[in-house]
Design a protein that fits this description.
Belongs to the class-V pyridoxal-phosphate-dependent aminotransferase family. Csd subfamily. The chain is an alpha/beta fold. It is about 35% helix and about 15% strand.
């Protein structure tokens, strides 16, 4: 079995514009002057950010006397008022089950629900609306695919999995392998914590049945060139799935360009509600998979002798769906289509660079992963201090970061870590958030070191 490489944690002093070839493993001076080589966008960008930020009620609160500094968007994003309003409007005025009833509330509910499917077709640039399946999140989406492909997989078939994958893109494939006798092979990482392209090409010579990738690493923010990786996999006849949970709130998506068979993500990471997710599937492949759930809504005809399933998308949406959440997701899509402009994307990228540079300048900070194209996430540890201790002390100053293994234990093992801290930004994050975080971390450093 191919083993993942063991990238070495890096404490780095280079600026955000350096390439991986320039990285040196060293300790920055504890008295380093904050890096000034990263210049943020114009005042116009700051005004645009302020306008966006004003739409998020949760950000305007105090925690133990400190204003909230929310740097945990990779775990779940905050919600703009328009998402909250859309869900409240549904419950207050249109609350009814979809598709079956003859009354007006149900008709309005169904219209709103199915309108979001049309929005998603446009948002993802999918060919057909029937290629959009509503689920309860990325995890359910991947489980649905992994279960649905059971009949397509035989003993000895190879399943390739990104070595930096979230557990949700590992465990369902392991269960599929248990059911079928298939073999799991991790795609190794190189020293920069990117997928090792050479090793990947070698593994593809095994003619894998399935290749499961992540678009953006939830732990490190590293971006995979998924269109290239999918193209290589398809040449070997593999079915491809891309976990886009960390990409959807930051990138403009085009599933036709990526050309994958399945693309999955969650609403709550893209400024929508929890409890709703999306499975995109290429129609000819999606139409062959067995349903994970059976019962109401997904049938065409039922008798005690035989049941005939309905057509897509209903066949894969058994039971009462998360109607209010889907409607909230529609509002989140509208929000992103309005606000996630190229200028905002550039501002987000500059904030990540600024965050990295300030952490390096602080000294005694270990940064992990590739640093020249991270999206949304910076993973770090403070010297040899336990990540949980650092997170708790930051929380006491109103700073919200994530600490732990980030549902990526195999990745942590390859880094020789039990866990790390993760600061992640969103469309509402600004320079003041980064400065407050760095000041708070400096005080934690003074306390612990």
């Amino acid at each position: 079995m191919t083993q993942a490489a063991s990238p070495t944690p890096n404490t780095v002093t280079h600026t955000a514009t350096n390439t991986m070839a320039d990285i040196e493993t060293s300790h920055a001076s504890a008295n380093a002057v904050p890096d000034t080589t990263v210049t943020l966008c114009s005042s116009e960008a700051e005004k645009q950010n302020a306008q966006i930020r004003s739409q998020f009620p949760a950000l305007h609160q105090m925690l133990d006397g400190y204003p909230l500094c929310y740097l945990d968007t990779a775990a779940t994003s905050q919600k703009p008022q328009m998402v909250l309003d859309a869900m409240a409007q549904f419950y207050a005025n249109d609350n009814a089950n979809v598709h079956r009833a003859a009354h007006q509330l149900s008709a309005r509910s169904t219209l709103s629900y199915e309108k979001v499917r049309d929005q998603l077709q446009q948002f993802l640039k999918a060919e057909r609306r029937e290629e959009i399946i509503f689920t309860h999140g990325t995890t359910e989406s991947i489980n649905l695919v992994a279960f649905g492909l059971t009949a397509h997989v035989n003993a000895g078939d190879v399943i390739l999995i990104d070595a930096a994958a979230h557990h949700a893109n590992i465990v369902p494939w392991q269960e599929l392998a248990k059911r079928t006798g298939a073999v799991i092979e991790p795609i190794p990482l190189d020293q920069a914590c990117r997928l090792d392209l050479s090793a990947y090409k070698t593994l593809l010579e095994l003619k894998p049945k399935i290749v499961a990738l992540c678009h953006v690493s939830n732990a490190l923010g590293t971006v995979n060139q998924v269109a290239q990786l999918v193209q290589l996999a398809k040449k070997q006849g593999a079915i491809t799935l891309v976990d886009g949970a960390q990409a959807v709130a930051h990138l403009t998506l085009d599933v036709a360009e990526i050309d994958c068979d399945f693309y999955v993500f969650s609403g709550h990471k893209m400024y929508g509600p929890t409890g709703v997710g999306v499975l995109y599937g290429r129609f000819d492949v999606l139409d062959t998979i067995a349903p994970l759930l059976t019962g109401g809504e997904m049938i065409k005809r039922v008798s005690f002798e035989v049941t005939e399933f309905g057509s897509l998308p209903n066949r894969l949406e058994a039971g009462t769906p998360p109607i209010a959440e889907v409607i909230g997701l529609g509002a989140a899509i509208t929000f992103l289509q309005t606000e996630l402009t190229p200028q905002v994307q550039a501002y987000e990228a500059e904030l990540v660079n600024y965050l990295q540079s300030q952490l390096r300048a602080l000294g005694e900070v270990h940064l992990y992963g590739a640093f020249d194209d991270n999206i949304g996430v910076v993973a770090f540890n403070l010297a040899d201090e336990h990540h949980q201790d650092v997170g708790i002390l930051l929380d006491q100053q109103g700073i919200a970061v994530r600490c732990g293994h980030h549902c990526a234990m195999p990745l942590m093992q390859s880094l020789n870590l039990k866990g790390c801290c993760r600061a992640s930004i969103g469309i509402y994050t600004n320079k003041d958030d980064i400065d407050r975080f760095i000041a708070a971390l400096a005080s934690v450093k003074d306390l612990l070191l």
